What does this fold into?
Amino acid sequence: MGEESHFMLPVNARPSLFAVGSIKRIVAAAVVVGVGAGIPVVAATAANAAPVKSAPVHSVQAAAPAAAPQAPAGYTVLSGDSLTKIATTHNVQGGWQKLYDLNKSVLTNGPDKIYPGQHLTLGEAAPAQAPAAPAPAAAPAKPAAASPLAATPVASTPAALQALAASIVPANQLASFDQIISHESGWNIHATNPSSGAYGLPQALPGNKMASAGSDWQNNPATQLKWALQYMNTVYGSPNAAWAFWQVHQAY
It folds into this structure.
């Protein structure tokens, strides 16, 4: 018999050992032939196949186009127009002369002859504007310097208050001014006369008179001293004259 007898099955439908061996040899030979011919061998099941990795996709951001220079504004001449009228109406910097310089290629007959329908340029092309730089952070505001006359001395001793008076009262009046304040209040900014109610360094009566020199008259020696100097100048002409009066009357 020929090769066909290798594939015959017995009656019980089971292949004989000879047939099975022949089939295996045929399959193996086919595999070898396929490999030699360059035909790929595909795995029997999808579970054994290696997953296919897709190439990474990188997103590319398009660069923002640079800002183009702004085109100059234009105007179409109407009946009854003149360069002066157009320049004035559209606020052309340089007036009609500038408008003519910008449009000499159109106004070939001179500035006095323009015709309806002519298109004029009203200005030069504006350069592209660069992005505005962020504004620098504002520096913290410095507190206003306190006036030496308005500041309350750290110490309220007579010596400290007398030094303050020296910065307010003219030098040629200071000795008389010092005498009056020493006799009236002993350089005590809160001195109060129990009988009359006179108050403060100059013993103002009533004390709220000193509000004309400042609303802080009750506790600010500079305010009290400024009021005292103003009072002596107004009533007596000077602290020297006020002290002369005080020595006679024991008051001023």
Notes: Helices lie at 17-36, 83-89, 95-102, 158-166, 174-185, 221-235, 239-249.
